[in-house]
Amino acid sequence: MIMTQTAVSTASRDAEHEPLLEVDDLKVEFRVGHGVVSAVNGVSFTLEKGRTLAVVGESGSGKSVTAQAIMRLLQTPPARVTGGRILFQGRDLLQLSESAHRAVCGEHIAIVFQDALAALNPVYSIGFQLSEALRRRRHLSRSRARARAIELLQLVEVPNASQRVKDYPHQFSGGMRQRVMIAMALALEPEVLIADEPTTALDVTVQAQIMRLLGEIQAEREMGMILITHDLGVVAEVADEVNVMYAGRVVEQAPVEQIFARPGHPYTQALLRSIPRLDRKGHQLDAISGRPPELTRIPAGCPFHPRCDRAEDICRSDPAPALRELAGGRSAACQFAE
Ligand SMILES: Nc1ncnc2c1ncn2[C@@H]1O[C@H](COP(=O)(O)OP(=O)(O)OP(=O)(O)O)[C@@H](O)[C@H]1O
Ligand code: SF4
Ligand SMILES: [Mg+2]
């Protein structure tokens, strides 16, 4: 059958738009001495196959806690998931037993953190650590697992991989260690990769190299990637969609080009004004005035109202606005966004 251009692009778009992971109204809190920290307050989003969803927002907005809830990495107590669903291949991860969850995440969902040194075991060689999962989960022989470990190091562009596979974590530079952690995350060919500020601790040139590499691998393998980052330059380069988080909520959700061209939420607009831009050399940056709220006492109404230059009475009196659809595939949680 000959497919027309439209039919081909519709078919490939359908494949692309296959939902992989759906987070629905997720709520997470921490019980601490002085009260309850409401860290995630009804987060919903869908990650599609082959797409990169960037998650941005100031420190403490709930980006990592959302990722850790998906991976079940939160220590309970003090953490408690108090609501919502996390659907992967139609199954709610929150309902799975510990061992069933470990099996799903081990096979299908992987995470890369900022701190590779903490994630790698200092007493085993990189080769051993890479091989171990392959032997246990894929039942590869020792020599085949070793060969695959070398291939994985080559994939993440570690030079001289067949020698370096014998080395221990401390023998690698920060950037190389981060590549090793990415190799480990990719070992079992996950469908979903969560990267939580994977390059923040590295120098700018190495950051760019690793982000480019991650982007290439994600596209080649058609993985879904959740990329948590403070770097809006990286967002512009690699993301397809963007979630903007504030005080444990997603306050704006939009295709990447729309976020930059037509940000709908006053918080997104303020975030964009606070980043350096090459085309605005010499201009003063606008810091976002005020501070994010204490998550033990989030203000009533729109949580952003104390810092918002467009706030009106209704922002204080009505409940926190839910995400509302706007033109251009955008949604924003603001009374007045358009
Ligand atoms: N173990 C814990 N006990 C109490 N509060 C916690 C705990 N872990 C996280 N939090 C709180 O949850 C909130 C969300 O934290 P989270 O780590 O998700 O922020 P983030 O958006 O990833 O910030 P950053 O950009 O700094 O990494 C923060 O206020 C944080 O203090
Ligand atoms: S709802 Fe009101 S306070 Fe909240 S972001 Fe919109 S204008 Fe600002
Ligand atoms: Mg974080």
UniProtKB/TrEMBL annotation:
Q: Where in the cell is it found?
A: Cell membrane
Which residue ranges does the record assign to the ABC transporter domain?
21-272
The cellular component terms of Gene Ontology attached to this UniProt record, alphabetical and capped at eight, are: plasma membrane
Q: Which SUPFAM superfamilies match?
A: P-loop containing nucleoside triphosphate hydrolases
Please name one Pfam family that this protein belongs to.
oligo_HPY
Instruction: Read off the PROSITE patterns from this record.
Output: ABC_TRANSPORTER_1, ABC_TRANSPORTER_2
What keywords sit in the KW lines?
A: ATP-binding, Cell membrane, Membrane, Nucleotide-binding, Transport
Molecular function via GO: ATP binding; ATP hydrolysis activity
Example GO BP: peptide transport
Topology of this chain in the membrane: Peripheral membrane protein
Indicate the family of this protein: Belongs to the ABC transporter superfamily.
Q: What is the protein named?
A: ABC transporter ATP-binding protein
Species of the source: Microlunatus elymi
